[in-house]
Design a protein that fits this description.
Helix content is about 80%, strand content about 0%. It has about 400 residues and is mostly helical.
């Protein structure tokens, strides 16, 4: 898998260089010339982080002893210092993006990687400090599965949902001729649009239609979280065994969630443009969401497996769906409100909801961070015999 990442990264680098020097015409005229390089950097980062998993699996096949894995604990001042540095990195990156310099993306590449990875590392510090992590093989494998397996399974499930929704929509519109005619008229209007005012006029009835908002919220706040929270800890489903403690499941969940968060943020934050700084700030909160929820699910999975806590697992699963659903709902609210303000739509009840969305996201972030600290405190400093490392 790491090799595939590197191959695709190489293709993107070659294509980016050919486009940059005018040897090959640009594939998409409206994207930054640095976009292929951002995508290549994401693939190289992902591929590099998969290498330790392969290395320690080879060591196991060769019969070599497992090595104990631990994350060095940062002092309080270190956490504060790195957090401040991260804010400065995000601000400088946003300034460079807004500056619009032709070759600015060359400087933005390392800034982008640091801005994406630092929050995930800090949440790993908060969630895993003082907790025995077992072998390097298990830790890197769980992280790697979160980085690759979880996103693949979730992508397949979401594509399946979209296809089924399209088929259901086709059947519904086929049996409702009036709606079918309205859809055809909408398609014709969409194809003849030439100005932003025409876009505003066409989309305003839909942006202010409560049913459209209900449908969007139902998808992103209910259906998506149901699949994501079940599939994100996919690696833990395969790794759990009777020798594990709930603490081990919590640690594995955090590692798996960190892998998934890194994959998602690398692919989202690479869309360099206006508002990049705010995007990264928001993505840091989403990273925390994935790490926190998957940590909870890992803890509940091992509890259910070893302590017959099936009801606890079901309860935690619905709790993570609720948290994820609220997060997505608040995010959609902010997004709809931004569109309303951008299109200057008057007298819309959505116009003022961005404040509610931002407050909701901030509240959830603080709540998850505090809970992560409390759970870590309850699970850390348990004695571990390093000579009996679990694979």
């Amino acid at each position: 898998m790491a090799l595939l990442f590197f191959i695709f990264a190489g293709v993107l680098l070659i294509a980016g260089c050919l486009e940059l020097f005018g040897i090959m015409p640009k594939t998409f005229q409206n994207i930054s010339p640095g976009q292929p390089f951002f995508l290549a950097l994401s693939l190289i980062t992902g591929g590099s982080l998969l290498l330790p998993m392969g290395y320690y699996n080879i060591r196991k096949l060769l019969g070599k002893a497992n090595e104990y894995f631990e994350i060095r604990k940062l002092p309080g001042w270190g956490v504060l210092f790195i957090t401040i540095i991260w804010f400065l990195i995000v601000l400088s990156g946003d300034w460079l993006v807004n500056l619009g310099a032709t070759w600015g993306w060359l400087v933005e590449l390392p800034i982008y990687l640091l801005a994406v990875s630092i929050p995930i590392y800090m949440f790993l510090q908060i969630g895993l400090r003082g907790i025995p992590l077992g072998s390097k093989l298990r830790s890197w494998s769980i992280f790697g599965l979160g980085l690759v397996l979880g996103p693949i399974l979730i992508l397949i499930s979401e594509i399946t949902i979209v296809i089924l929704s399209v088929f259901a929509g086709i059947i519904y519109f086929t049996n409702n001729p009036t709606l079918n005619q309205e859809l055809l008229a909408f398609s014709n209007q969409l194809s003849s649009i030439n100005t932003i005012n025409q876009v505003q006029e066409l989309l305003t009835p839909y942006l202010t239609n409560p049913w459209v908002i209900v449908i969007v919220l139902s998808f992103v706040s209910a259906i998506v979280p149901m699949f994501e929270e079940f599939l994100k800890p996919a690696g833990i489903w395969f790794a759990v065994n009777k020798k594990m403690l709930p603490r081990d499941g919590f640690a594995m969940g955090i590692l798996s969630g960190a892998g998934y968060a890194l994959f998602e943020t690398l692919n989202t934050a690479g869309n360099v443009g206006d508002g990049w700084g705010m995007l990264l700030l928001g993505r840091a909160g989403t990273d925390l969401l994935h790490i926190f929820n998957t940590g909870l699910m890992g803890w509940a999975l091992v509890s259910a497996w070893n302590l017959k806590g099936g009801l606890k697992l079901l309860g935690i699963y619905f709790l993570t769906i609720t948290i994820h659903g609220l997060w997505n709902g608040f995010s959609v609210t902010v997004g709809f409100s931004s569109l309303i303000n951008e299109f200057d739509i008057k007298n819309s009840w959505l116009g003022g909801l961005s404040v509610v969305g931002v407050i909701g996201l901030a509240f959830l972030s603080v709540l998850m961070l505090i809970t992560l600290c409390v759970m870590n405190h309850k699970m850390q400093y348990v004695p571990v015999d390093k000579s009996q490392i679990e694979v």
